[in-house]
Every structure is written in structure tokens, then in C-alpha cells.
Design goal:
Shape: globular
CATH architecture of the largest domain: 3-Layer(aba) Sandwich
Distance between the termini: 38 Å
Structural class: alpha/beta
Radius of gyration: 20 Å
Largest sheet: 7 strands, mixed
Number of strands: 15
Bound molecules: pyridoxal-5'-phosphate
Number of helices: 19
């Protein structure tokens, strides 16, 4: 029988990140100001260190991973590639299902791949404190973990609903020395304004980002910066180590071709990390179906327009060209907190515009059913975000059975769900529901994009 765990030795860890911006047939429209003019890197300087801003705008295909980062990544990388043989057997599918297990990192997800890199570059630049937001708490705990290793202070604004649903994530952040407050909070002007207008709001990533940026730019010491766990080009870049390792591991497993690549997408980083090296192959002629998945309750990719929009609710960021539901959209309180974001990484958005990747959306209850099937066949408890990828894997594996095709399916197992048991409990006791968004609600926040500049949705027409 073939191996079900494929390891890569430490000496074979990738030493460069892959930058899709170098190969996209049509460039991502640049970030612009409200006047529609492209912003200069200096505009971002109070928010990010210049070494990361340089990475953000780089068009170099391969970027060296500094040795200091690799040394920390060795704590859990290379991550295993696993074969989901028991799910295959249950589904009676001829497909071979592989998954990159990112749940093995100390905080339990893919997020520390960029947290460590960002903390390292900030430290190199002389920064002493990082401020961030977190949805499900995975990103906040990953940055807390990285800051602790690199000797930086860390403060996290955690979206209110997750703060209440996942209290143990707060403990993880505290253990690694970070401060964690619920957002909206009374610590910022924007937080106080939102609390006054909507005292019972579950919060959103857009609001939490605004609070974190507000506090960062108010600090005039020059030693504090903001850090984002997804969406931006440099975050996607740091995550490509996942797909680059997976390629080497599939080769070891004897697979010559991958047919389907799947990842869930909140801001887009775990999906991008696994898939971009395969998008590169697709650009060069490979026949691969590449699918990002999202909740129907926050259908950014499948229902949102491609538009210029702010990354945060208080309109402090530059305008980014992306699929978006509008920066005022507050998603329903689904348990997949990391997928409750109104926008999507501009570089992933451009890959959708090009037709290189094909998004799908799923309801919460179907995703919990998939998570339970996964736990009862394969064993592990997945994060609610990850269950959106597993649902698509099951769909594709059943399709392969119906077509009688021996496909190779690869997906990103973005995190474990051991801090998410309250959601499982609610599902098992029948308390969870699907959310059907009132059309008017989405139309309202999307309508607010009307006054903003419009990007041209340019594509090469090859896919
Ligand atoms: C386990 C897990 N998967 C996926 C995501 C979605 O984020 P991204 O799209 O940036 O990978 C999150 C975000 O918090 C997460 O915690």
C-alpha cells in the first residue's frame, strides 16, 4: 500500500518564495487613493516597514527566504503531506485525495508562515511592537507566537463574536505574551463610534482592522507598525512555501499530475499559498481546476463585484482592486470567523478575473456535515474554515466517482478545530442554522462602492 504520510526532509525545505505577480498575464490594478491615483510606497510607511512594502510591490518571480526565518519555520516545517485514504474509501472514489497539513504548527494553522516572516522583517527594520486584528483568533495567536519568539510586543483586536465564541484563543495569545481586546472596543475613536451606533454588533474584520490601524498611526514613536494576516501580496508570497513543499512531496508520492487544487478563502492566503505554484503551471499550459471556497453567508467571490474598495470599515487603507461585498458589510456570525471578511486579496481576485481559478460557496450546515464526516473517517477535527475546503473535496471526489476518473485532488488543511468545539457542539445539538442573506443588506453595502473609482477588469482571455 502507498504511504499515507509524505515527509520532506529539512534540507529540502524551499529556500525561495514564489511571486505570482511576476507571471499573471494581466497585472493587478494598483492600490489607489480616493482620487483614483496610484499611491506611492511612502503612503504605507507609517503602517508597514519599508522592507515589507518593497516585497508588496515586487515583480520578482522568486524571493529568497532569509535564513533567520527558515530557522524558525523548522519548528514545524516542512509540514506533512497526507493522503485521505479513509475518506476516499468511504466515498468509494477512484480519486486520490492529498492534503497539506498546516494544522501542525504551534498555533494550529497556516498563519505563522507569514507571522514569523512579518515579525522578522519588522524586527530587522527596528520595530518593537506590532498591532493587528484577528477574526477566528488563529491569526492573532500566530502573531503572538511569532512576536514572542522574536522579542516584539503584540496587541490584537479580536472580532467580538469570535472573542465570545472562542475564548481559549485569547488564552493562547496571553500565554505567548500578547494583549487581546474585543473589537469594537472603547480603546479607539472608531471603536467607540461603532459601539454607539451598534452596541450589539458581532463586529467584523473590517472594523477590527480599522481599530488596529488607528492605534498604530497614533503611536508617534516610530517603533510600532501594523501587521495583516491575509489579503496583501507579501502575505500571499510568504504562504507559497506550502504549495512549493506540496509539489516536492507529490513527486515523492509518484504523482505526475494534479487535477484539482482546493483551499478555503477568507482574505485568500492559505488558498494562495497552496495554489499559486499550481496557478503558475496552469499559466504554462497545465490542465488544473483550481477552486477557492467561501461561505454563502459571506459570498465575496461568488456574489461580490470586482471593484476598488477599502480594506477596513473606517476607510483608512488605500483602495484595493478586489472582489468585495463593500467595507460596511457585517457578515452574519457564522463559526468560520476567518472567512467573515468583506474583501479578497487583490492578486487572488485578479486570478479570478483571468479565469485561472473558479470560486464556489457552501452553507454552514453542509460544511459542518463535511467536518463530522472527516472526523469520523480520517480522525482529526478541522477548523470551521477548513471545512469549506473539505466540502468541495467531497463534491469533487464524488464527481470523480460518477465520471469513473482517477483524479488527483490536493487541498489545504488550513487548521485544526480544537479551539472551535463550541461550534461543533452547537451543530450536534441542532442549534446551528444556515444564514440566508437578505438581498437588500448586501445590495446596500455594495451600493456604497458607487462613489469610488472603478478598476477595469482586464483579462488576457486565455482561460
Ligand atoms: C484555519 C483557517 N483557515 C482559513 C482562514 C482564512 O484566511 P485566509 O483566507 O487568509 O487563509 C483562517 C483565517 O483566520 C483560518 O484561521
Amino acid at each position: 500500500m502507498d504511504d499515507i504520510k509524505i515527509f520532506l526532509s529539512e534540507k529540502d525545505i524551499p529556500r525561495k518564495w514564489y511571486n505570482l505577480a511576476a507571471d499573471l498575464p494581466t497585472a493587478v490594478p494598483p492600490p489607489v487613493g480616493p482620487d483614483g491615483k496610484p499611491i506611492t510606497p511612502e503612503v504605507l510607511a507609517p503602517i508597514f516597514p519599508m522592507n515589507l512594502i518593497e516585497q508588496e510591490v515586487s515583480l520578482k518571480r522568486w524571493i529568497d527566504i532569509p535564513e533567520g526565518i527558515i530557522e524558525i519555520l523548522y519548528r514545524w516545517r516542512p509540514s506533512p503531506l497526507r493522503r485521505a485514504r479513509y475518506l476516499e474509501k468511504y466515498l468509494k472514489t477512484p480519486a486520490r485525495i492529498y492534503y497539506k497539513d498546516e494544522s501542525m504548527s504551534p498555533p494550529g494553522s497556516h498563519k505563522p508562515n507569514t507571522a514569523v516572516a512579518q515579525a522578522w522583517y519588522n524586527k530587522e527594520f527596528g520595530i518593537k511592537k506590532l498591532i493587528t486584528e484577528t477574526g477566528a483568533g488563529q491569526w492573532g495567536s500566530a502573531l503572538a507566537f511569532a512576536c514572542n519568539l522574536l522579542g516584539l510586543e503584540c496587541k490584537v483586536y479580536m472580532v467580538r463574536i469570535s472573542f465570545d465564541q472562542k475564548p481559549l484563543r485569547k488564552s493562547m495569545m496571553k500565554i505567548w505574551g500578547a494583549e487581546c481586546v474585543a473589537s469594537p472596543s472603547d480603546e479607539t475613536e472608531f471603536g467607540r463610534k461603532i459601539l454607539k451606533e451598534m452596541p450589539d454588533t458581532p463586529g467584523s474584520l473590517g472594523i477590527a482592522i480599522s481599530e488596529a490601524i488607528e492605534e498604530t498611526v497614533k503611536d508617534t514613536s516610530g517603533k510600532t507598525r501594523y501587521s495583516l494576516g491575509s489579503v496583501l501580496n507579501h502575505v500571499m508570497l510568504h504562504q507559497t512555501i506550502i504549495g512549493l513543499e506540496a509539489k516536492k512531496q507529490l513527486e515523492i508520492a509518484g504523482e505526475k499530475k494534479v487535477d484539482v487544487v482546493i483551499g478555503c478563502a477568507g482574505g485568500g492566503s492559505n488558498f494562495a499559498g497552496l495554489s499559486f505554484p499550481f496557478v503558475h503551471d496552469k499559466i504554462n499550459g497545465a490542465d488544473i481546476t483550481i477552486i477557492p471556497t467561501e461561505p454563502t453567508a459571506c459570498p465575496t467571490m461568488t456574489k461580490g463585484p470586482f471593484a476598488y474598495d477599502y480594506g477596513d470599515s473606517a476607510c483608512q487603507t488605500p483602495l484595493l482592486a478586489m472582489y468585495t461585498l463593500g467595507h460596511t458589510f457585517v457578515p452574519p456570525p457564522i463559526h468560520a470567523g476567518g472567512l467573515r471578511y468583506h474583501g479578497l486579496a487583490p492578486i487572488v481576485s485578479q486570478a479570478i478575473v483571468e479565469g485561472l481559478i473558479e470560486p464556489r460557496s457552501y452553507h454552514q450546515l453542509q460544511c459542518y456535515e463535511s467536518a463530522i464526516l472527516w472526523a469520523r473517517t480520517e480522525g482529526p477535527l478541522c477548523a470551521p474554515e477548513t471545512s469549506h475546503a473539505i466540502t468541495c473535496v467531497i463534491e469533487e471526489a464524488v464527481k470523480a466517482r460518477e465520471e469513473g476518473k482517477e483524479k488527483v485532488i490536493l487541498f489545504n488543511y488550513s487548521g485544526h478545530g480544537l479551539m472551535d468545539l463550541a461550534g461543533y457542539e452547537k451543530f450536534l445539538s441542532g442549534e446551528l442554522t444556515d444564514y440566508h442573506l437578505p438581498e437588500g443588506e448586501m445590495a446596500k453595502s455594495i451600493g456604497e462602492l458607487d462613489g469610488l473609482p472603478r478598476p477595469a477588469a482586464k483579462k488576457s482571455g486565455k482561460w
